[in-house]
């Protein structure tokens, strides 16, 4: 049996990935930069500062602003994002997640969170999910954003589980790369993801018996 499952948050447990996109899009528009959902795939799992860098590069404005201006843009984006979070409730937990959490707990499998979002504790609290998690990696304590494996390795260490004995679930290409680089088994949620050990189209397809069978087949 795998000893732990580590979840990404935005786009796996709830659809805050869409809120991140809408907030970035609004800020980008103000700067005269157009971003669409295809471009947004590159921002998923990427922290706030690196996301801004990518947007400015995309708009040909890589060197156009001072560090203080960039800080201001990040603050603005976060305020927009937090407005969108205001009504988040347990009803916003994506299909398939609660049954999976219950099955993991029943199987004695530890449960971890690997979100690079500094808003993750609040999102988890709004969803009423804090008690399910044995360990949540602290985004503020990280040196590297995904695709670096740091956050998944931190989560495994916090859970007291070797990466080879753990499964990671992600909706971002950068997240799949991070899981693979950590030595964990990767589960990808999304039609366009490449490189996952096991890929599903949406969270409603997540089921513990299937997950277990795929994991065991790769051991
Ligand atoms: P914040 P995850 C990531 O969370 C998001 O995918 C990414 O779009 C966002 O920029 C990042 O968190 C930082 O979030 O601005 O709230 O600190 O996918 O790792 O759960
Ligand atoms: Mg995500």
Automatic annotation (TrEMBL):
GO biological process: carbohydrate metabolic process
Pfam families linked to this entry: Hydrolase
Top-rank taxon, per record: Bacteria
Residues binding substrate, per UniProt: 8-10, 24, 43-48, 51, 77, 115-119, 146
Main subcellular location of this protein, as a coarse class: cytoplasm
CC cofactor: Mg(2+)
Site features described as Important for catalytic activity and assists the phosphoryl transfer reaction to Asp8 by balancing charge and orienting the reacting groups, chain residue numbers: 115, 146
Top EC class of this enzyme: isomerase
Co-factor note (free text): Binds 2 magnesium ions per subunit.
InterPro entries in UniProt: B-phosphoglucomutase_hydrolase, Beta-PGM, Beta-PGM-like, HAD-like_sf, HAD-SF_hydro_IA, HAD_sf, PGP-like_dom2
CDD domains found in the cross-reference section: HAD_BPGM
Keywords: Carbohydrate metabolism, Cytoplasm, Isomerase, Magnesium, Metal-binding, Phosphoprotein
EC numbers on record: 5.4.2.6
Active site per the UniProt annotation: 8 (nucleophile), 10 (proton donor/acceptor)
GO cellular component entries: cytoplasm
Catalytic reaction annotation: beta-D-glucose 1-phosphate = beta-D-glucose 6-phosphate
Location in the cell: Cytoplasm
Chain positions recorded as Mg(2+) binding sites: 8, 10, 170-171
MF (Gene Ontology): beta-phosphoglucomutase activity; magnesium ion binding
Family of the protein in this entry: Belongs to the HAD-like hydrolase superfamily. CbbY/CbbZ/Gph/YieH family.
PANTHER family attached to this UniProt entry: 6-PHOSPHOGLUCONATE PHOSPHATASE, HEXITOL PHOSPHATASE B
NCBIfam families from the UniProt entry: bPGM (TIGR01990), HAD-SF-IA-v3 (TIGR01509), PGMB-YQAB-SF (TIGR02009)
Descriptive protein name: Beta-phosphoglucomutase
Species in which this protein is naturally found: Chimaeribacter californicus
């Amino acid at each position: 049996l795998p000893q732990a499952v580590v979840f990404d948050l935005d786009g796996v447990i709830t659809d805050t990935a869409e809120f991140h996109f809408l907030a970035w899009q609004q800020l980008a528009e103000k700067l005269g930069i157009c971003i669409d959902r295809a471009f947004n795939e590159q921002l998923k799992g990427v922290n706030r500062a690196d996301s801004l860098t990518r947007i400015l590069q995309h708009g040909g404005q890589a060197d156009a602003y001072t560090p203080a201006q960039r800080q201001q843009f990040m603050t603005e984006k976060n305020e927009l994002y937090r407005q969108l979070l205001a009504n988040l409730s347990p009803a916003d937990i994506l299909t398939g997640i609660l049954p999976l959490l219950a099955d993991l707990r029943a199987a004695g499998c530890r449960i971890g969170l690997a979100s690079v979002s500094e808003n993750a504790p609040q999102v988890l609290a709004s969803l009423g999910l804090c008690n399910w998690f044995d360990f949540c990696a602290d985004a503020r304590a990280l040196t590297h954003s995904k695709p670096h494996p740091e956050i998944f390795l931190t989560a495994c260490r916090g859970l007291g589980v070797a990466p080879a004995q753990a499964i990671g679930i992600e909706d971002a290409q950068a997240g799949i790369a991070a899981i693979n680089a950590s030595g964990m088994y990767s589960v990808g949620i999304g039609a366009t993801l490449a490189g996952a050990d096991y890929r599903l189209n949406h969270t409603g397809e997540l089921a513990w018996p299937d997950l277990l069978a795929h994991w065991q087949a790769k051991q």
